[in-house]
Structures are given as structure tokens and as C-alpha cells.
Amino acid sequence: MKLILLGLPIGNAGDVSSRAIRTLSEAKLIICEDTRVLHSLWQKLMNIGLAKEKLAAKVRVINDFNEKLRVGSLVAEIAEADEAVLVSDAGMPVISDPGYNLVKGVIAAGGEISVVPGPDAAMSAVAVSGFPADKVMYLGFLPKKTGKRRQTLEMVKQLSGVTVVIYEGPGRIVKLIDEVETIFGEVEMALCNDLTKVSEKVWRGKTGEVKEKLPEKLHGEWVVVARI
After folding, report:
1. Is the C-alpha dihedral spanning 166, 169, 170, 176 positive or negative?
2. What is the pLDDT of residues 97-112, one digit of tens each?
3. Dihedral of the CA atoms 167, 170, 171, 174 (nearest 10)?
4. Per-residue pLDDT tens digits for 119-128
5. Stretch 169-191: mean pLDDT, rounded?
6. Is a pLDDT exceeding 90 seen at residue 77?
7. Is the model's pLDDT at 86 over the cut of 90?
8. Exposed, middle or buried: residue 72 (CB in 10 Å: 0-12, 13-18, 19+)?
9. pLDDT at res. 158
10. Which of 37, 40, 44, 64 could form a disulfide with 89 if both were Cys (CB 3.0 to 4.6 A apart)?
11. Residue 15 predicted with pLDDT over 90
């Protein structure tokens, strides 16, 4: 049996690869994070002429709440279908998204893991940040509890000459900037908002400068890149 990890656009539907469309079109079983998001994207692809027909595959759902409970039944279903495709709402599955436990389960059952790569918000943000990309540390979403967030950042403080990538929601961006400034001092940052979308915006500067540049109302998806 084989599980294919397939990357989807991070904001612009036109970024999907022809291989990704073909793989999804031919799939018998698709495992996704949210059926509504998957079908909405596919409808957009049909509207702009990139996809020709509706998805014919059976669709199953895994998310942060049910993944561990569903691994056994999904591995059995993948084995029966012989092949399945795993996608997340945007970007690559497993990377700050569900899928790790399923991948681990398929490997344990002797299955094969393959990949159809796609857009990646973290590396896209590093590319546009203007910072060196020779040493990159990906932290994803920091813990919600203040103590654990600080502990994670303190761990990074032991390093130097590293470009750090953090995912954050709009409601915590200012707090994150303050935390970075408290622990690392005035460091260079790039705040990347809604990458690949029409509303894409990148603010660059030291911690205090980027905070002043931000609009009052924050929205969308954010990737924070800092040079430590």
C-alpha cells in the first residue's frame, strides 16, 4: 500500500501543480483535513479550467482531534484501496498540520510513503524575507501557554546566525513581536501576511519598527521570520 503526501496551494489556487491535479483526479481515496475546504478548492480549480471533473474519490477526514483515534481504521482502508492521498487545507500535510500519526502508522504497517510536493509557506517566507537561508530553524506554531512559548524561544537563544520561522495567528502577532524583543532584543524581522494572495504583504525591519508599521486591524495567515 502507498500513502501519497500531496501539497496544495497556500493561498493562490493557480499555484497547484498539474501532477497534483492528476493525482487527485485519479485517486480512489483522499484523506483531508476539512472536506469543505477541499471541495471549495476543487471547485475553484474547475472554475479556472485547471480541473475538468468533480472528484470521484472517497473522502475521509483527519484533524488534530481525531487523528490518533482514526489511524488504525484508515491504515486498513488504505491497504484495501492499495493507495491513498493525504492533503491538508493548505500547503504540505504533516508540516504544522495533521498527518504525522497516519504516516507513522502506514510505515509501521509496511506501507510506502510518497510525495507530490507543493507550495510551502515557511520556505516562501524565508525566500522573501531577505535573510540568509543557510541555517533555518522552523518552529511552526508556538505553544499557547506563555511559559512554554518563552521556554521554546529561550532554547533558540542559545543559537546565533540562524533564521527562525514561526507561524502565528493575527490576534497574537504583536504579542509575538514583544516576546521576541524581550528575549532577543532588537533583531531583524520579516512579517509575511497572506503570501501568494492578492492581499500579500511583507513588513521588514527591527522588532520595534515592524510593530509600528503594522495596520490596526490584522487578518489572514502570518509567517514571522526573524534573524537571530
Report:
1. negative
2. 999 999 999 999 999 9
3. 80
4. 999 999 999 9
5. 95
6. yes
7. yes
8. exposed
9. 87
10. 37
11. yes
Look up residue 82 and give its three cell numbers: 492499495
Which amino acid belongs to residue 71? V
User: Do 30 and 85 meet the contact criterion of CB atoms below 8 Å apart?
Assistant: yes
> What domains sit in the chain, N to C, each tagged with a CATH number?
2-116 (3.40.1010.10), 121-227 (3.30.950.10)
The single residue listed with the C-alpha cell 520561522 is: 165
3-state per-residue secondary structure call for 93-150: CCCCCCCHHHHHHHHHCCCEEEEECCCCHHHHHHHHHCCCCCCEEEEEECCCCHHHHH
Which pLDDT value is given to residue 216? 85
Residue 9, Cβ neighbours under 10 Å: how many? 20
Q: Distance between CA atoms of 53 and 224, rounded to whole angstroms?
A: 38
Global pTM value? 0.91
Strand order across the 58-61 sheet: 58-61, 29-32, 83-86, 2-6, 112-116
Cell 493557480, residue located: 14
Alpha helices by DSSP H, listed for the chain, are 18-26, 35-47, 67-81, 100-108, 121-129, 146-157, 173-184, 207-213
* Nearest-angstrom CA–CA distance, 185 and 189: 12
